[in-house]
Amino acid sequence: MHVERSGIRPPHTNHPLNNTHRIFITMSTYGTSAQHAYTVGPQENDPYKYQVGFGNRFASEAIPGTLPHAQNTPQKVKYDLYTEGINGTPFMAPRHENQSTWLYRIRPSVAHKGFTRLPDNPDLEACFLPLNPKVHLSPTQLAWHPFDIPTGNDKVDFVDGLKTLAGNGDPTLREGMAMHIYAANQSMNNKAFCNSDGDFMIIPQQGRLDIQTEMGRLMVRPGELVAVQRGIKYKIELPDGPSRGYILEVYGSHFELPELGPLGTHGLANVRDFESPVASFDIDQSPWNIVFKLGGKLFECKQEHTPFDVVAWWGNYVPYKYDLEKFADVGSLEKDHMDPSIFTVLTAKSKTSGAAIADFLVLGSRWDVATNTLRVPYYHRNCASEMLGMIYGEFSGRSDDFAPGGFSLENGYCPHGIAYDVFKAATEAELVPTRVFEGTLAFCFETSMQVTVTDYAMKRSGKLHEHEPTMWDNLKGQFVNHIDEVNAELKAAGLPQLGEKA
Question: Which residue of 114, 208, 260, 437 has the lowest C-beta tally within 10 Å?
Fold first, then answer.
């Protein structure tokens, strides 16, 4: 837009300029416009671009103009692509819960040569009901030293390296969760994976994961998480060599952001910090193997084309990643502890209101400023089961030499807490504003359910050790050292002294 501004004063003024002398200034008020929706990347160690937001209905096309206009299933898609839909919720789910994506691809997923059953992975488990003889209940604290990464001539990719530690429920019941680790030293090449049981949240601890999904590519480094929903095909390459990490799988639910309540609109894991891929496709007619996990069993189908041939897509059933170091911590500014739910990044709801199938909590560096407060974790018995892992750093006050790549478990109502020397030091420390967990990134999987532990974790991993209960031997009854003081106060209050009947 252009505006002409005249320098002429009205004729009745005494301005020295008259109507024969006009000054016109042409001025533009137009700035600029965005050329596309906001994206992030590429960045150091991550060559890919991402769309931002959580739960958004994104639209992405690798070739401009590919997405159909104003409809999803036109009679003929541009470039003779095939329309394919994938949904993550029932069709009649409430609109705010409904998840689905439309894919426009070179060949549809149905173009394959049939399924065959693969040999069982003895370390992979899906049924955690106590009637399964391959899972076990434990009332005590358990811990595992860091799990081994394959070396030498043993070539193990992400799928082959899956090992289950614990879980609850069963995927055929559509409610429950599983805790796995992966340890791999080989990329998947012309092999893809599709989990029909549940959503995978993958947390690398060593080495980046270069993940190619049907919706596009993600590079995930230690310190980030990636969620790939049930039914979506993907493959994982290892750009840094051998890799190890943790996986939280949920059955019958999807991860979502926790409610913020009085916190308001922002805080904890902020919506704009989640990143989803942009459309990216290959033209590849070579042989591929697709491995499906169904009921904890593995099946394979072969096809003569890549599964990563989606030219354009739109929807909200899309993988995403999140940088845990961006978490916006909240805490007590004056006194006492807030509940550990303040560290929740994502939650997966169960069928019971207020009880999660799984919560994912992050424990990283932050300030501690509470006054007249025992700042270390208080001794507690939690109705939920807690599973702890560490990505990097140190975690003090534990008996198990807890280290990155290791794991610990406390089932519901198992008493637990810090060692006596840590407790004693905390009761005597000068309370000044302090950075805690500096240089450390740990996490907690928490579930409202009791979990069972697998044969692999209990018998074959070679890493299991129980917490040493002697770490609490020095938690003596210090109260008895104050009997005289207590009796004096009782007497002054006119009350019977200890040991006296009322």
Answer: 114
- What is the structure's pLDDT at 267? 94
Rounded to whole angstroms, how far apart are CA atoms 244 and 391? 10
End-to-end CA distance of the chain: 92
Spatial distance between the Cα atoms of 151 and 156, rounded to a whole number of angstroms: 9
Give the whole-angstrom CA distance, residue 428 versus residue 336: 16
| Beta strand extents in 126-223 (DSSP E only) | 135-136, 142-144, 162-170, 175-184, 191-195, 199-206, 209-213, 216-220
DSSP state of 55: S
- CA dist., res. 215 & res. 310, Å (int): 7
Strand partners, 201: 227, 248
Structure tokens at 43: 């960045």
Residues in contact with 229: Cβ distance below 8 Å, sequence separation at least 6, in sequence order: 88, 99, 199, 254, 317, 318, 319
User: Strand 50-52 to strand 297-303: parallel, antiparallel, or no bridges (unpaired)?
Assistant: unpaired
The whole-number mean pLDDT for each consecutive block of 10 residues of the chain, a chain of 502 residues, reads 42 51 68 90 94 96 97 97 97 95 98 96 96 95 94 93 97 96 97 98 98 98 98 98 98 96 94 98 97 97 97 98 96 91 95 93 94 89 92 74 91 86 90 93 95 97 86 89 95 93 78
Question: Looking up tokens 């390459």, which residue turns up?
Answer: 237
Give me the torsion for CA of 205, 206, 208, 213, rounded to 10°: -50
pLDDT score of 380:
87
**What does each C-alpha distance from 11 to 5, 6, 16, 22 come to in angstroms?**
16, 13, 10, 12
The Cα angle at residue 66 between residues 62 and 67, in degrees rounded to 5: 105
> How distant is the alpha carbon of residue 318 from its chain centre?
14
Helix (H) or strand (E) holding 23: none
Rounded Cα distance between 211 and 235, Å, is 6
Task: Please state the separation of Cα 149 from the chain's center in Å.
Answer: 22
Q: Which residues contact 315 (CB under 8 A, 6 or more apart)?
A: 57, 58, 86, 99, 100, 101, 102
Rg for the chain (alpha carbons), in Å? 29
**Token pair listed for 231:** 């039914």
Give pLDDT, residue 470. 82
Residue 492, classed as helix, strand or coil, is: helix
Return the amino acid letter for 468: E
Strands 191-195 and 288-294: parallel
Residue count of the chain, please give it: 502
